[in-house]
Amino acid sequence: MEILDKVSGIIGYAVIKAEDGSIEEVKGTSASPLGDLAAFFSSAGEVIKNSLSLGNINYVSLCYGGNRLIIFPYESKYLGIEIDRDGKPLEFIKKIVSAVIVETRPQFELPRSISSKVMQINLLLDEFSSESNKAHWLEVLNQGLGILGGEILPYMGIIEGKLIFKDKPSDDKEDEFVQGLRTIIDFLVKKAVEELGTSQARVKVQAVIEKMRVP
Question: SS3 breakdown of the chain: % helix, strand, coil, rounded to 5?
């Protein structure tokens, strides 16, 4: 993620693939094995979270010597960011996310068949979640994105709690992307039925349908 090279205060960083815990990229001037540390503690955090039923962990912060390593999920990856020990994790996470938003904000118009599906997914996300469990449903959405893989996944990401397209797909791929988005919608609805119950999930889905009808 070259954008991280432009964020002040970062000594080094590692990008970890959430799907398998492999190291995708390590850059910077850190003397520490950032890739190994980020890969290990991102995996350990998932195990601890699940074993102790802690819910979603927003980030993990480790201190060693004069430095601090912050590990947090972003889209379908984990980012391990090394900063000064006195640095404040949440401030750096917000700085990084803001920098990525500016860098990746789309400057194009999607076909209506695709944009309507993106809108539906984001409305479902809003209906199924609340302030207390928004992070959980963003993780569910991440899981849905992980199902796609292939040529579709790199085009999409989660920015400021919303699904966006980072780039416009070619016209000949439109049907393929629409089908992929339908897969995500089906995945979200299935999870809602499992977690909220059939009746409540149906009510929320109907609310989204009504909102989609508003011109």
Answer: 55, 20, 25
pLDDT tens figures, 8-40? 899 999 999 887 889 999 999 999 999 999 999
Give the domain ranges of the chain. 2-103, 105-213
Q: In 3D, which of 163, 75, 182 has the Cα closest to residue 119?
A: 163
Question: How many beta carbons lie within 10 A of that of residue 196, not counting itself?
Answer: 15
Residue type, 143: Q
CATH number listed for the domain at residues 2-103: 3.30.450.30
Which residues pair with residue 130 across a beta bridge? none
Q: What is the 8-class DSSP label of residue 17?
A: E
Q: What is the DSSP code string of 157-199?
A: EEETTEEEESSPPPGGGHHHHHHHHHHHHHHHHHHHHHHH-HH
Pair of tokens at residue 90: 């949440």
Q: pTM higher than 0.70, yes or no?
A: no
Q: In angstroms, how far is the first alpha carbon of the chain from the final one?
A: 38
